[in-house]
Design a protein that fits this description.
By secondary structure, the chain is α+β, with helices and mostly antiparallel strands. It contains twelve helices and 27 strands. The chain starts with 10 loop residues before the first strand and ends in a 6-residue tail after the last helix.
């Protein structure tokens, strides 16, 4: 854990001596015999550094005791105390106004500074520094899920100056971080524009080709419109065979043979050559659920429609690998689709929009082989597929270089933001 040096004139005390620290047990259930309230839940804290009354919050109900104990008041700090990942532990958010009808929900801790010593907003800034945040991460207990106990929450040490100086630091950091956040937001906006440009580039190339003067013909599909006259259009079921993934108990995972997971497909246009998943599969499994060059994998099930039907293509066989039951593999018949073309075609935005429109969401979205088989597939001649793949790869490389530079700038700004906060709340940076 990183050590910090507070200004020698600052007082240093454990949090329990200068704040009331408590953990909420208010769940999301609504009971008719309780007081109706709005709940500030885990995600409300995780994604917002300031909790305000105009936020959209879920409905809940509490007893009078819970309302008095966990109602939100200006100056409090809410913190995430449970998570599946250490990175999500002890994320703070400042309560900027009194909200008596809003209650702190489950999986959160509430820190309420005592009068005349610690300012809540100052503590929220301090809780974002590596020193305090690392303390909480190290104190979190668990194996597959981590949680902060009451003792760990209360016993972190914090340095602080007078309240007047704390408020001056608050004002400085509000202004400075707002400037940095504005720069970051603009750069993220540029990344969004680049992503749109990448999508448009891919969709145009795989549905219209590279020659704008080429003769065209109606595709017979409304959302595709006209296509080059020398291209074919077939349904996916006529160009390959579909197969759902392996269905096996959880006790078989973690060792054995390579295993292609849902995230391997969801996150990548092409499958990584080295996957991290392992499963104890049989010879029959490895034959039936093999991963070969040219195979196209689709995400089959999710809680949201937008994550269904995301594709990834295997460019090089993964020996001994099988694939997850939440995936569908389509193995094209020989000499129809070039894998380098497939990896772009099945990710084009027009096709994604078609799938989203066709999906029906109940409690969990699921892609059937029947619906997948109805996907329209454009099949240019092989030489066109080769040229299109090369064109997209070349242009994406240039766009990706620009995006990489922007991402590096965002990373530097984020580090600068964290450094400014640390220097201000430790007294290294003089704030008047």
């Amino acid at each position: 854990m990183k050590q910090v040096r507070y200004s020698e004139s600052w007082e240093r005390r454990r949090l329990k001596f200068i704040a009331d620290v408590k953990t909420s047990n208010v769940d999301k259930h609504v009971h008719e015999d309780e007081i109706p309230v709005r709940l500030c839940n885990y995600t409300d804290v995780y994604y917002n550094r300031v909790i305000k009354d105009d936020m959209e919050l879920s409905a809940g109900s509490v007893t009078l005791h819970e309302l008095n104990r966990f109602g939100l008041r200006r100056g409090q700090v809410l913190m995430t105390k449970d998570s599946e990942s250490w990175d999500d532990i002890a994320v703070p958010a400042y309560v900027s106004q009194d909200m008596p009808e809003v209650v702190c929900g489950y999986h959160l801790a509430m820190v309420e500074p005592l009068d005349d010593e610690l300012d809540g907003e100052f503590f929220c800034w301090a809780a974002q520094t590596d020193t305090i945040n690392d303390h909480y991460k190290l104190e979190a207990r668990g194996v597959t899920r981590f949680g902060l106990g009451h003792y760990a929450l209360k016993n972190v040490e914090i340095g602080f100056p007078s309240q007047d100086r704390q408020r001056a630091i608050n004002a400085f950091l509000r202004k400075k971080t707002a400037e940095i956040d504005d720069l970051i937001a603009k750069k993220r906006g540029l990344l969004g524009l680049l992503a749109e440009k990448r999508s448009a580039l891919i969709t145009r190339a795989v549905t219209k080709g590279l020659d704008p003067t080429a003769p065209t013909k109606p595709s017979g599909i409304d959302w595709l419109g006209d296509i080059p006259a020398h291209w074919e259009a077939r349904r996916l079921r006529f160009i390959g065979r579909a197969q759902n993934g392996i269905n096996i108990g959880g006790e078989f995972f973690g060792k054995g043979y390579p295993f292609v997971s849902y995230s391997d497909v969801f996150k990548n246009f092409e499958l990584p050559q080295e996957v991290t998943g392992l499963v104890e599969s049989s010879d029959a499994d490895r034959n039936r659920y093999a991963v070969r060059s040219g195979d196209i994998f689709f995400t089959r099930t999710s809680e949201t429609i937008e994550e269904i039907g995301m594709s990834s293509v295997c460019l090089k066989a993964i020996p001994g690998a099988t694939f997850a039951g939440f995936l569908i593999r389509v193995r094209p018949y020989p000499n129809i689709l070039l894998p380098e073309f497939s990896k772009f075609y099945f990710r084009n935005t027009s096709l994604r929009a078609f799938l989203v429109k066709e999906m029906n969401l109940v409690t969990r979205a699921s892609l059937s082989q029947t619906l997948l088989g109805n996907i329209p597939v454009l099949i240019p001649p092989r030489e066109d597929q080769e040229r299109i793949a090369a064109y997209i790869n070349e242009n994406l490389a240039a766009l990706n270089d620009v995006a990489s530079n922007i991402e590096s700038a965002i990373e530097r700004l984020t580090e600068y933001r964290a450094a400014i906060i640390t220097k201000a709340v430790t007294g290294e940076l003089e704030v008047t």
